[in-house]
Amino acid sequence: MRDEGRLHLIEQLLPEGDELEIKDTFSEPGQPRCEFEVDGKPSIGLRGDVVEAFIKPIEVKQDAMRRLGNPSSAGIGVGATIADHGAMAVQACTYKGEKRQYVLALDGVKDPTGTADRRRVLEPFLRSPLPVAMEAQGCRPSLRGRIRRRK
User: Fold this and answer.
1) pLDDT in tens, 118-145
2) Is pLDDT at 37 greater than 80 in this prediction?
3) Which residues, listed in sequence order, are joined to residue 35 by a DSSP beta bridge?
4) pLDDT at 111
5) Number of domains present in the structure of the chain
6) How far apart (Å, rounded) are the C-alpha atoms in residues 128 and 70?
7) 35 phi/psi in degrees, rounded to 5
8) Domain span at residue 77?
9) Does 151 map to a domain?
10) How far apart are CA 40 and CA 74, in angstroms?
11) For the chain, which terminal residue's Cβ has fewer other Cβ atoms within 10 angstroms, N or C?
């Protein structure tokens, strides 16, 4: 997938600006982290975690999702929650030959400015197939791009 394709998945959730920088803030095997900055200001945090199959990420992160505002369930993967300013989806997977779960979480989402619009954009982002979401996290410090202006 080209960098533009990766950026397209998340660009609707970013504020308007001229410069986008994507930083790999912390990575361990199975735990990519990206911070999206627009015009030098932090915007969205995107995290991926590989967790044991018995863990219930939706329950574990329930308080964090409440802090993101009015969480509600979404029928995505093994489970998902969409809040006013973030979202989380859990997908069953195999990691190093063992059954695991992949947890994709976003926070700091403030755009689009309307809460209903923001939630409408978050759901398709979470629905994208897991390999696409994982690739979208590329987390390579060299990944830079321009933000397209909304019309």
Assistant:
1) 888 888 888 774 555 544 443 222 233 3
2) yes
3) 23, 45
4) 77
5) 1
6) 22
7) -120, 125
8) 3-141
9) no
10) 33
11) C
With H, G, I as helix, E, B as strand and everything else as coil, classify residue 116.
Answer: helix
**Of the candidates 35, 61, 125, 44, the residue with the CA atom closest to the CA atom of residue 71:** 61
Name the nearest CA neighbour of 38 among 68, 7, 64, 84.
7
Contact 46, 105 (CB under 8 A): yes
**Does residue 65 lie within any of the structural domains?**
yes
Q: How far apart are CA 110 and CA 17, in angstroms?
A: 14
pTM exceeding the 0.85 threshold for the entire prediction: no
Residue of 41, 8, 11, 36 whose CA lies nearest to 24: 36
* Domain assignment of residue 146, yes or no: no
The CA distance from 99 to 101, in Å, is 7
Q: How many CB atoms lie within 10 A of CB 75?
A: 8
68 occurs within a structural domain: yes
Tell me what pLDDT residue 147 has: 42
* First-residue to last-residue Cα distance in the chain: 25
pLDDT band at 63 (very low <50, low <70, confident <90, very high): very high
